[in-house]
Specification:
alpha/beta, 1211 residues
Length: 1211
């Protein structure tokens, strides 16, 4: 492979810490693999001396596979030391090419004794851990309520609603999860809480004060920019020039405030409160100049722009109600006691939750990180174990470094050397802040390390190398990306300056041109199109954009795409197309419905609502009844369903007859009124059958695995088949299978039983982060159009990308809670004074809120960057707006920092760059042409989309329905008849069972074959369940014939043949079997009382003595024998095979031959011996055939030993 100069530089650099800033599509993974192979070949370093850390398990597996292929290729081409390369292939499975969590698990497993934890711990299931955490929070709160401290009461009153403490529970949970991203979570918490009790001097020097200063400056700069927009409008030919002087005065006032902000804070606050905007000098009604002025521009300045800038000043007035700093500090400090109480709850939760996890032998991923750090660190220095890893790992590679957090960085710091760290990532693609990823770690190194341009000294340790050549996308997509982000991404918003040094440069050529498309759906265009009904008015943005995507996809299927890897054009298929959304909430179902309606294969690996599906709700209600039948809602739900099959009238009849009390009691009362002539006897029988089924399932639930119980219910009620016949039946059946899988997974956890499973399901359905997806019947590898979130698409590439939802509002929920947290700025809370009944913003919370807002906007910017860099050949963007006229007034203002800050969607950012300074007329001209600045820009009207919406002539359908009896279609009738009369050519094979037991085969005939095909072994109730005492009756004294046979065979298998085998010896052996729990006490007494003499007689019989003398004896030997079906019954197909399975009771060697013994416990007399021989002759023949194949010896004799007669009979 030909490497670029920068790629080769990365491959060859040694003895340095290297940070590779690798842009999207720059081949960073290929370079990383090549560097590893290069080191292995040229430096003879073993692969298990590398630590390669990736972000996901899939990435780790992919990395290992690529390294393996490269090593195999090197071995085949004899490139390097062949023996050494072969050794690396053997060592590859031992190499630490893994996620950081897996590495931490490896460290903890090897050193568990240092932590005092169970070595058999397991990684907890997310759902199980969520439930344990909530239980821990409940316990912590209960203890706090019991103690009832003043500080805790203040916390509760400040942060909960009157009758519930869900808000406080949420605060505790979020705070706990947030602090776990720090190496020392409780220390961070302690310091952050103490910082709230701040002095005035400390506040002046704090990050809070600095952030407030930056916020105010940005607001005032925004006011200036708004005024400047107004001045430019005034200077336009049809602008209100008379307003210009007033706007200049406005500008002077704002600039004066900025000067005061820089010099003296208190003077600035005074100026804010004394602010009074100059009076706008207007036009007289008879002024001829007024005829020249555009009325819309006049109104925009007078009401919109001046109003906005005044709102900024008024907002600052509300933020600074006092003109002395001490009052702001006092409000912050006032909340110290409440937050200190919160800290105590978090500390208690930390210990409680940890104990619960230890009790259950589970850990979570946060535990792995903290346990590993505890092992690797000793008083802020590397421990001896960490030093051993420093000695072991010659090189450490970290992929996706931009997504690291502080604890992961601290772990790596313990095991790295001074010059063996290789980090690769792209901070522009850091989009996991919601998982507490910290891009500032990457940025800090990016600032501190020296850029390697080939002229650095050899002894320079810390280096940065840039990879900016893109080998994925066409140059039009890269140009659009560079244009957009060079205008909107900066250190302040974006956390990196998007300048030429980070531009995407094209590395591959395409044979044609395909500009980026921007499609703006104008919902106001409804006024330009007349419709017969109001249906169009109800279409939401999601459906509009889905319909537009359908239209675009149909167009694309008739076009070609260029494959740069194969360097050829080919037709576009469904699987080439992906639809990206920032968030799929409330949109995915709409897209799925529209695509299914339009006949386009569609796949979305996501969604929720699993527990809200009808089939799952019904089965869960049934399980609730099995657990506790006295639940009216669940009972009526199941009775009214196809499982109960009660009609609404029947349910009403029961309630009318017995209107009071639980419905279950009403049903029982109804059943007890058989003498009443008004009682429906059919309904009574129906109730009896229904409740007997419930009682039976309740009994079976005591000893049956949950997944088996659910599946048995689905089969016995035919509910599984029923839902399969409904619309989307395959999905409904898949949902039910998924429920059985959940039950199976549940029983792997530390929880057991139906009651706990139902509680587990209930909590899962209530935990937002655990919303379960409905089952899928299509896979992403099928020829389907895929819908995915931008986050899911990271690391992937697609020939065609359609980015929808451009005008969806950014999520600002992160800054709405009363308590905000930030890694650097600590904790900020609202001022809540319960006694005064007041609640308002504190400067600390405002500072943290602004910082979080900037970071969230930066994240949104990076998410958009990821979306734009997924496309190979086509990139199509779609957004819908309510009014183009309104939007252009916002977009024309441009893309200054303030306007980017105030942008509420991706569409605002994109259009603010494209249409800066352009009015509505100018925009309409651009949209008419369809092209602007190398972009295809289109205005999409309702009419363009609705033409694509499939419509059916409703009148025609209604007429056909009215005349349904006379409607005929010969083709349909012929097809129906063909299907109904279909006969399978191999119908005999249908009823041929694949496996038979020897017992089933002994009385085999053709008539019984069909029933054998469906033969399911019945559940043997060895123990009867005592409902009253809620335990099994182990001391069962009566046994069926089958149970006796099983018991005798168990005893005969475990008797020690080397003993005396008289009564005394046999009793001792039976007692020994009971002590080993092979027999119960009742079974031991049963054998002694009923079968001891018969067992003794066997061992002293002729055949028993022959067996005891043998040098080789085998008992209870299982076998499977393959037979042709036609050998069992003549009329069956010769091509079919049957597996015969059985167990040989006993056989022994006698000379070179074998003798078989088969015990029979049938109760017979001497006259029935010939019948017994005839009955079992076929079974013994199968034993002989199987044994001769197993032992490769001749079976010379076979005996039945009849226990009831004490005789052996040769067959």
């Amino acid at each position: 492979m030909d490497w670029t100069q920068q790629q080769q530089r990365i491959i060859d650099l040694r003895n340095s810490n290297i940070l590779v800033s690798a842009a999207a599509g720059s081949g960073k993974t290929a370079v990383l693999v090549e560097r590893i192979i290069n080191i292995v070949k040229n430096e003879s370093v073993d692969i298990d001396k590398f630590l390669v850390v990736t972000f996901t398990n899939a990435a780790a597996a992919g990395m290992k596979q690529k390294i393996q292929k490269a090593l195999v290729k090197a071995a085949q081409e004899e490139d390097g030391n062949l023996r050494h390369i072969r050794r690396q292939l053997n060592l590859l499975n031992k190499a630490q090419i893994t996620t950081l969590h897996s590495f931490c698990l490896y460290v903890v497993r090897k050193n568990f004794h240092l932590l005092g934890i169970d070595p058999d711990f397991r990684i907890g299931d997310n759902s199980e851990l969520s439930i344990l955490l909530q239980e821990s929070i409940d316990e912590v709160l209960e203890r706090a309520y019991t103690d009832g401290s003043e500080d805790f009461r203040a916390l509760v009153e400040a942060f909960t609603k009157n009758r519930e403490d869900d808000d406080l529970s949420t605060i505790i949970s979020k705070t706990y999860k947030f602090i776990l991203s720090f190496p020392d979570p409780l220390i961070w918490l302690e310091n952050s809480v103490d910082y709230i009790n701040i002095t005035e001097e400390e506040f002046k020097k704090s990050l809070w004060f600095k952030e407030i200063d930056e916020y105010v400056k940005m607001q005032l700069d925004g006011a200036k920019e708004i005024i400047n927009v107004g001045i430019k409008i005034c200077e336009e030919p049809d602008g209100p020039i008379l307003y210009k002087n007033t706007l200049i005065k406005d500008m002077a006032l704002v600039e004066e405030m900025l000067c005061l902000l820089k010099s003296d804070f208190i003077s600035f606050v005074d100026a804010i409160h004394s602010f009074k905007a100059p009076t706008l000098k207007g036009y007289r009604k008879d002024d001829p100049e007024l005829l020249r002025v555009n009325e819309g521009k006049l109104t925009e300045i007078k009401e919109k722009l001046r109003g906005e800038y005044k709102d900024i000043i008024n907002g600052l007035k509300k933020l600074f109600p006092y003109n002395t700093l001490d009052k702001y500090v006092e409000e912050i400090s006032y909340m110290y006691t409440s937050i200190a109480a919160l800290k105590d709850l978090i500390v208690d939760l930390y210990d409680t939750y940890k104990c619960k996890k230890l009790e259950n032998g589970i850990v979570d991923f946060n535990d792995l990180e903290h346990y590993a750090l505890e092992i690797l660190r000793n008083n802020d220095e590397s421990s001896d174990i960490a030093k051993s890893y420093q000695d072991k790992f010659e090189y450490i590679f970290i992929d996706e470094y931009q997504d690291s957090n502080s604890i992961q960085e601290t772990i790596i710091a313990q095991i790295k050397r001074n010059d063996n760290l290789f980090m690769v990532g792209d901070v522009k693609q850091s989009i996991y802040r919601f998982r507490l990823a910290d891009p500032s770690i990457f940025n800090k190194k990016y600032t501190e390390y020296e850029h390697d341009n080939g002229n650095l000294k050899e002894d320079t340790v810390d280096r940065i190398v840039e990879l900016n050549k893109n080998f994925r996308s066409r140059k039009e997509i890269l140009a659009a990306t560079n244009y957009l982000f060079s205008n909107i991404m900066s250190k302040d918003i974006g956390e990196i300056d998007y300048k030429e040094n980070v531009y995407l440069n094209h590395g591959i050529e395409f044979p044609d041109e395909n500009p980026v498309e921007l499609n703006i759906i104008d919902r106001a265009s409804i006024n330009d199109y007349e419709y017969e009904d109001d249906e169009i008015e109800s279409l939401e943005a999601a459906e509009l954009e889905a319909l537009f995507a359908v239209k675009k996809i149909k167009e694309l299927l008739n076009q070609e795409t260029y494959d740069p890897k194969k360097e050829e054009l080919r037709n576009i298929t469904y699987k080439d197309i992906v639809i990206l959304l920032r968030s799929v909430k409330n949109w995915s179902n709409v897209f799925e419905e529209v695509f299914n309606r339009e006949g386009i294969p569609f796949y979305f690996d996501g969604g929720s609502g699993y527990y809200e599906t009808i089939e799952i709700q019904l089965i869960i209600n049934l399980l609730k009844l099995i657990d506790n039948i006295k639940q009216d809602i669940s009972l009526i739900s199941v009775m009214r369903s196809t499982i109960g099959n009660f009609t609404t009238e029947e349910l009403v009849e029961i309630r009318v007859k017995f209107p009071y009390g639980p419905y279950y009691d009403a049903c029982n009362q109804y059943k007890g009124c058989l003498d009443d002539i008004k009682i429906d006897k059919y309904l009574v029988n129906k109730l009896d059958n229904f409740f007997n089924k419930i009682y039976d399932w309740t009994t079976r639930s005591k000893y049956t695995h949950l997944n088996d119980l659910i599946w048995e219910i689905l089969m016995e009620t035919n509910y599984y088949d029923f839902v399969g016949s409904l619309p989307y039946g395959k999905i409904r059946q898949a949902n039910l299978r998924l429920l059985t899988d959940k039950a199976f997974d549940f029983e792997k956890t530390s929880m057991r039983g139906l009651f706990k499973f139902l509680r587990y399901i209930e909590k899962l359905s209530n935990i937002s982060e655990n919303k379960t997806r409905t089952a899928k019947t299509l896979g992403e590898n099928d020829n389907v159009v895929r819908l995915m979130t931008i986050h899911t698409s990271k690391g992937l590439e697609f020939p065609v990308v359609i980015l929808c939802g451009l005008n969806k509002k950014f999520n600002i929920q992160d800054v709405t809670p009363k308590i905000l947290m930030h890694k650097e700025y600590g904790i900020g809370t609202k001022y809540v004074n319960v006694e005064k009944r007041v609640e308002y913003q504190t400067l600390s919370r405002k500072a943290i809120g602004n910082k979080i807002t900037l970071e969230n906007l930066s994240e949104e910017m990076r998410v958009l960057y990821v979306a734009m860099t997924r496309a190979i050949d086509r990139f199509i963007m779609v957004g819908s707006i309510s009014s183009l006229d309104t939007k252009i007034k916002k977009w024309r203002r441009g893309h200054s920092k303030y306007f980017i800050y105030k942008g509420s969607s991706y569409l605002d950012w994109i259009c603010s760059c494209l249409f800066e300074g352009i009015n509505l007329e100018g925009l309409n001209d651009i949209l008419a042409k369809g092209q602007y600045k190398d972009w295809n820009v289109n205005r999409v009207a309702y009419s363009d989309i609705i033409k694509e919406k499939s419509k059916v002539d409703q009148k025609d359908i209604i007429e056909k329905l009215k005349d349904l009896e006379n409607y005929s279609n010969k083709n349909i009738y012929d097809e129906v008849e063909r299907r109904l009369n279909f006969k399978y050519n191999y119908d005999k094979s249908v009823n041929t069972p694949t496996k038979l037991s020897v017992t089933e085969s002994k009385s085999l005939d053709l008539d019984k074959f069909e029933s054998l095909r469906y033969n399911i072994p019945s559940l043997s109730n060895l123990f009867e369940y005592d409902e009253k005492n809620r335990k099994f009756k182990l001391d069962k004294m009566e046994y069926s014939g089958t149970q006796i046979g099983t018991l005798i065979h168990l005893v005969m298998e475990n008797i020690d043949i080397k003993g005396k085998l008289d009564k005394s010896d046999l009793i001792g052996q039976l007692e020994n079997l009971m002590s080993k729990n092979i027999l119960t006490q009742a079974e031991e007494r049963f054998i002694i009382n009923r079968y001891l003499d018969k067992i003794e007689a066997f061992y002293n019989s002729k055949i028993g003595i022959r067996m005891r003398k043998s040098y080789f004896i085998k008992r209870e030997v299982p076998f499977v024998l393959k037979k042709k079906a036609s050998e069992m019954i003549n009329n069956l197909d010769e091509c079919d095979d049957i597996l015969i399975q059985g167990i040989i009771d006993c056989y022994f060697y006698e000379g070179d031959d074998v003798v078989i013994i088969d015990y029979k416990t049938d109760t017979i007399n001497d006259s029935q011996i010939e019948d017994i021989k005839s009955k079992y002759r076929g079974q013994i023949a199968l034993y002989k055939e199987a044994l001769e194949k197993i032992e490769k010896k001749r079976v010379k004799e076979a005996y039945l030993y009849l226990m009831s007669l004490g005789k052996e009979i040769e067959i």
